[in-house]
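Human:
If only I could read backbone structure tokens as easily as an amino acid sequence. I am handing you a single protein, as its sequence and its fold in token form. I hope you can help me see how the letters and the tokens relate. Thank you; the sequence and its tokens follow:
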Amino acid sequence: MTTSPVKKGKVGPGTTLAGKIEYMPDEYDYRKVLEAKEREYHKSKLQEKDFCPRAKHTDTFNNAKQVYMEDPPIPPKKIKEEAKHIPPGEEGATHDRAFKPSNPGRKGIFGTIDKFPEHSPDPPTEKKRVIKDENAPESPPGFKATYKYKSRPTPSVATNLRNLKASFPGAFRR
């Protein structure tokens, strides 16, 4: 039977199979150094002037007057004369209509403008007398409650220890 040879070395702290590894110091702020290099690389790729998405102002092919066909002169607007108010009854008054209320009352019996209808008396009613039959059985008595108390406290309040002590102090004496 063939096996690999036994490993050589010491037992205990500082034991390694490949030998002693020398200490290599690391910069404390190496991350900042990398970020500075990346920033310098980025700035080297930028243009001299910042990017501006705004379009430059350019004139149109046709000006607004040509587009809207305003080359011929437009005649000025005619100004209407203001109508003078003349009170009714004088010469030149245009208002000869009758008065019409803006919110007239309801029509019918309860309206305020129409006349109320004349009173018509109610027709007389005939009284009918009922003769009791002596042989007929009597009607059952009316409803009668089966208890005399109108209300009572709920058991949770009635059996509360504090309420029982107040109601029956002699029963809880020491």
About this structure: The first helix runs from residue 30 to 45. The mean pLDDT is 77. Helices lie at 30-45, 64-67, 155-158, 161-167.
